[in-house]
Amino acid sequence: MKRLAILLPVMLCAVSAIAQKDSLVKIPFEVSAKANVYFGEIADTSKTVRGAGIPPVEIDIRGVKLVTFEGVEGLVSFYGLDSTYFNADGGHCTVYTGVAACGSFSGINHAKIATFLTGVIVSDYSRMELPPDALDFTGMEDRIEYVPSFDQPFFIGDGKNKTGAVQRWHIPKDATILYLGFADAAYGPPGHYCDNDGAVKGTIVLHYTNKGRN
Fold first, then answer.
1. pLDDT per residue as tens digits for the range 65-121
2. For the chain, what percentages of helix, strand and coil (3-state, to nearest 5) are there?
3. What is the fold, at CATH topology level, of the domain defined by 25-207?
4. For the chain, domain boundaries
């Protein structure tokens, strides 16, 4: 009996450690500059002005409460091989972000930067709805907490604000997939992916509780 009394606390500690590990999952990703978050919403990609790009990266987020990002690096350009390259936060270009709604996905706007890593969350039923209102992320890229709606593209960038604080995206109930890609257009529907170059990569952290600590 004494031996059991010694082993029981050790077993409980092991179970606790497993539960803690399972509440947080890290998944590496790489997103090409040609990855179009709207790709699946385009009825005929062959008719997209200057190229529809390629499908976005898909992350299974069923049961996830919130996501964070770490170690995001890499450079992308939307204007050909000889253009200026920016990191995942995007940068100042001659034109900025003004993407119109496409399919069931809303548009997304930013009056000061372009080429930023973008996400969209969907559920099994969200695409049956009309597109939600487009969000304007001008001046909003440094917030710590975000609560995206289904089918509403949102700014991700490198996952940190300008002070280096980790940003958190709260996942709505019944979410199934998070798309990672880019929203490319200055005025109108998504397109112009033919001359995009580069990629960003990093790690997405899936939190199955609301603590949100990496």
1. 999 999 999 999 987 656 789 999 999 877 789 999 999 999 999 999 999 999 999
2. 15, 35, 50
3. Jelly Rolls (2.60.120)
4. 25-207
